[in-house]
Amino acid sequence: MIYVILGPTASGKTYAANKLAEFLDAPIINADAFQIYKDMDIGTNKITKDDKSYSRYLLIDIVSPDKSYSVKEYQTDFRKIDLSKYKDVVICGGTGLYIRAALFDYEFPETSSNEEYLDKSNEELYSLLKNLDYETSLKIHPNNRKRVVRALNLINDTNKKKSEIINEQSHSLIYKDVKFLFINPDRASLYEKINERAEDMFALGLVDEVKS
Predict the structure, then answer these.
(1) What is the pLDDT of residue 119?
(2) Quick one: which of 38, 13, 18, 172 has its CA closest to 94?
(3) From the CA atom positions of the chain, what is the Rg in Å?
(4) Which pLDDT belongs to residue 133?
(5) Whether the Cβ atoms of residue 103 and residue 173 lie closer than 8 Å to each other
(6) Sign of torsion over alpha carbons 182, 186, 192, 195
(7) Cβ burial 14-36 (10 Å sphere, 16+ → b, else e)
(8) pLDDT for 58-91, tens place per residue?
(9) What DSSP string describes the chain?
């Protein structure tokens, strides 16, 4: 059985995953886009290396912060894991696209470069994306030029919006026996935990980690 633990920031996903994995004697596959990176520990609230559960984790601390790492690369690395070796597996993380790419029949169309975008500002590109694929624009920061251009190129090359492609590919699981567990605390307590976590991060040296 594959257990997928989902939920907002500070909802207790890591705690639940560690407890469940210990009970099942199962590995934990990280599905957090930032915990993939080495040395980004405090700001991502990553499990510490001296925690007894750390040895259970896969796909954590595998990329240097000066390297890029795409969803497609995560999908490839995930599917290299021989899940048949384990009776149970726990997946934990807050990056929904990573989880969809890993578990569903999710493909990544190849896109070409488009030089007509070179002279356009970030604001112009983002405005164009909002007009062509509003749903996708809501998930991309206006200054994330690379992702905005990629979404525009996808429309040019496939005549389909990225949001349409995601919706088409997010319905068929490629693995049997998958159970999704969503942790959803009430907002007041969740916001209190997030505030406490932020204070703890600064106390632990978040500023120095970011500088490094």
Answers:
(1) 85
(2) 13
(3) 19
(4) 92
(5) yes
(6) positive
(7) bebbbebbeeeebbbbbbbbbbb
(8) 999 999 999 989 889 999 999 999 999 999 999 9
(9) -EEEEE-STTSSHHHHHHHHHHHHT--EEE--TTTTBTT--TTTTPPPTTSTTGGGEESSS-B-TTS---HHHHHHHHHHS-GGG-S-EEEE-S-HHHHHHHHB----------GGGTTS-HHHHHHHHHHH-HHHHTTS-TT-HHHHHHHHHHHHHHSS-HHHHHHHHSS-BSSSSEEEEE----HHHHHHHHHHHHHHHHHHTHHHHHH-
Q: For residues 179 and 2, is the Cβ–Cβ distance under 8 A?
A: yes
pTM of this structure: 0.80
pLDDT of res. 170: 59
Which of 90, 81, 78 shows the shortest CA–CA distance to 13? 90
Six-digit token string for 52: 């007894």
Phi-psi region of 93 (alpha: psi -120 to 50; beta: other; left: phi over 0): left
Q: Which residues, given as ranges, of the chain have pLDDT below 50?
A: none
